[in-house]
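Query form — protein Protein FAM187B

QUESTION: What is the three-dimensional structure of this chain?
INPUT:
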Amino acid sequence: MSCWAPLRALFLGLFLTITEGSHYEGYSLGQPCFPGHPCALAFISDNPVILRCPHSSYRGYITWQYLDPSWTNEQPLTFLYSGGTSWPLLSHAKLRRLRFKSRLIASNLYIPSPSAEDSGLYTCRAGDATIGYYDVDFQDAGHLHVSHAGLGETTLSNATVELENGAQATLFTSWSPWQSCDRCGHSGERKQVGFCYAQLAMMDHEEDMPLPCGMIRRKNLMLPQRAPELRIETCQVPCNAPYLLGQEKPHWVPFLVFTTYHPQQKAIARLRCPTSSIYSPVYWQVGLTTLTRLQLLQKNSSQSLDKATGGGILRLSFQNDSHSTFYQCFVNGHLVGKFLVASPGAMSPPRELAHTYSIIEALVVGLSIFLVFLMFLSIIQSCRRKPGTTMV
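ANSWER: The structure tokens for Protein FAM187B are given below.
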């Protein structure tokens, strides 16, 4: 192998880090499903998801196909594939929307903001072979039932309903594991996501396997609507090694967005925390003051956290006051977003605070450049060695 191969790999890695980075950190990762082993997955709409393609090292074309459950007498149709210079001609408007809202990451399908209408069958193919498929139910985040234990709010109860032909359906919530506490050393919050599931029972028949509610409703239109859930509770954990190690993710790269907003008076601003989603711990700070959902719910505040992304969006309403404030957000304990919100005519932020932020940014950028410089030196040094020379 040429000694310049590592250099090319470095450039490629830097390019991917800049273009992709950790934008995909907040996704929910679907487990691969293989032909002959039926599986069904539930996700919350408006939150990123990655569907993995098994054997993605296949050197030929990898194609992703989609089938809407309402399409009759049709096979899954291709809407995205790796390789090639042309796009498939799409006869369905829905396929065109899916293509433009999706992208491939190492042959895996990434959908940044799926909608409930995107539910259906997704298949991954290598050549003529189907190597993975997903029957997906994107549950509507707009009807999310949020309950906070600190306010005494309760989760949805199980319900049993009568359907046609003497069938019964039990609706319940299937809960994901609790996420880690969103911060350490201080009082914080943690989340648990719940998906609507239903189990059918027929007279003189064994009960069917539970399935996401949307899939049951395709064949049983009388099944009532039931919302997905988000459960929140307070937590407090020490900043010890197990907690800090648990916050690190493999292949995570540092990512920081710094931007300025100038909202108009009597307007609403929405600050979106980069890489956050309902599937990841996230919290916000105003200056050095930490915001919690419990605090915002207990008082009539001009600030609120959205439901759909589990607090990934901070809403701010502005009246006639003039101010300039820094907001920060953290995902998995990492600072990923800083926002300067300055109303028209507001004074600049305190010079000391702005100077502190400038120093932090300069240190981060300087350290990154220094590490890249060291990598270049090591690669160039290896290229200068004579063939057969052994370093001792």
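ADDITIONAL NOTE: The mean pLDDT is 78.
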